[in-house]
Amino acid sequence: MAKAAEQAGRTSVWLEGKARRGRGGSQPSGLDRDRITGVTVRLLDAEGLDRFSMRRLAAELNVTAMSVYWYVDTKDDLLELALDAAFGELGLPDPEAAAEDWREQLRALASAYRALLVRHPWLSPLAGRYLNIGPNSLVFSRTVQRVVRRTGLPEHRITSAIAAVFQFVYGYGTIEGHFFGRVADAGMTPDEYFQHSLSEATEAPRTAEVVEESRTLMAARGGDTVAEMLDRDFTFALDLLVAGIEAMVERG
Questions:
Q1: What's the rounded mean pLDDT across residues 192-201?
Q2: pTM of the full predicted structure?
């Protein structure tokens, strides 16, 4: 109960004056916040969010846990720093480039965000847990807003359009990341895993009928590999959203 209350009362490392603050006293040699954050990202990628701990991080850094706490007060603070560091990987278009089509810029932003979610499966739960207002995340959010403003939608529809596109991407990238996690755990390639799962479902009485009904849809989906199928679905779904924005602009 006390832990839940403490978590509920927490705001953000970016609002508490701790983002660039170290503790007093002698600074541990060989460490800095950027290095600690970078190793945190690498551990989260390799071992997942559930297995991450400050003790595990300290062992990877070959220091004591107290040395890490010189730079961050809590594990939550460190995870929030790692979250923003991941957003720093995004290559962003220039929303002020008049010669650039907003449609292509929006597609580029959505594709980059999808790739980030797949590359770092731990990102999606953290993005939902924290306020996500670090400097890199804010640059991404500001770029998205400026691109969507160029669509011609009225001001009161901008946030709705952003939600439609990027909540779709969040869900798609999260599920895709889970899929690749299961593939890795199974020790198979994505195509092997897909074919094995499809075969199992076809033979099971409770799922065979549904799979059979979907067979023509799967065949019409196109793509010789799982990667191609995922890309085709994502691209078409994103095109639908872009077309929806265009239609709403035309309707005024």
A1: 88
A2: 0.89
